[in-house]
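Summary for the steering committee. One of the milestones for this cycle was to obtain a three-dimensional model of the protein with iron/sulfur cluster bound, which we needed before selecting residues for the alanine scan. The sequence and ligand used are listed below.
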Amino acid sequence: MKNTHVNIPVFIPHLGCPNLCVFCNQRAISGVRSFIPEKAKNEIETVLSSLGNRNTAAEIAFFGGSFTGIGRDLMTKLLDLGESYVKSGDVTGIRFSTRPDYIDEEIIGILKHYTITAAELGIQSMSDRVLKESKRGHTAEQTETAVKLLKDAGFSVVGQMMVGLPGSDAEDEIRTAYKICEMGCTAARVYPTVVFRDTELCGRMQRGEYSPLTVEEAVRRSADVLEVFLGNNVNCIRIGLCDSENLHGTEYAAGPNHPSMGELVEGEIYFRRICQALDSLEEVPEFCTICVPAGEISKAVGQKRCNKLRIEYKYNVKKVKFIENSSLKRYNILL
Ligand code: SF4
């Protein structure tokens, strides 16, 4: 049994993708401007050797573009490469990201020959209106079909969704999260919309036709959807783009780009849980002690102690103290 898990990312920038979603400058997101298939092997070897003998389960992850939309020759070449590492025991499987409309019976027939641990689907929204405004080029119905095909083939599906897309509001996003759960996705990723240079969204923003969410708004809206995933036992494996997704370079134009977006959102969940508990009291004491799960104090207190300060202000509490209680499960608190 391996103790930790790591994805070995092989970024496939924009290959085979004829779409140009308004928010996408795929070269910027992946930090890769061209793709030389032979390099993939070196990239994989480099990560594997850095893992050494550590007790880590690794998966090869073809991320970035739409993996099942690239030429069949290249796709099967990459799958063969990934599978050779599965056979040698170096990795446990292959995962990839793609668009819902690039999944059909033919693709499933190919994928079935390989050890696919998860298919990550760029669902983004289950509102056809939002999909249209974002020029996604597929419908919510196509997403439902793709998830069904993948699940019927026995693959786990990770639903990737965005908050703050043009035309989207908190209700659309909550509905999308519920739909991801209902369709049977086993996990989810949530990406607040960030504006990159050289994208249609950037042009719209400059013309005043689109306003990106602030970090605070993105935190609240991401917390709304995280609540849905928590309530339906769907594992939320990521909130916000990661550092490797190169958001600190010149490609970033505007929007909720925070290096600890996930932690901010989890902090918001703690804030809401604490408020619920305090609201249920007849009288809030002047001095409050809040028990939180072991290892979760920094999230519960919030960045720059924002939760502590907000609670003291909102409930007129003189002092809030946080202590750990190892019997509590994640996101549970006790007064
Ligand atoms: S489908 Fe994916 S890769 Fe293609 S434009 Fe949209 S976000 Fe970018």
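Key point for the committee: The chain has two domains: 4-259, 267-325.
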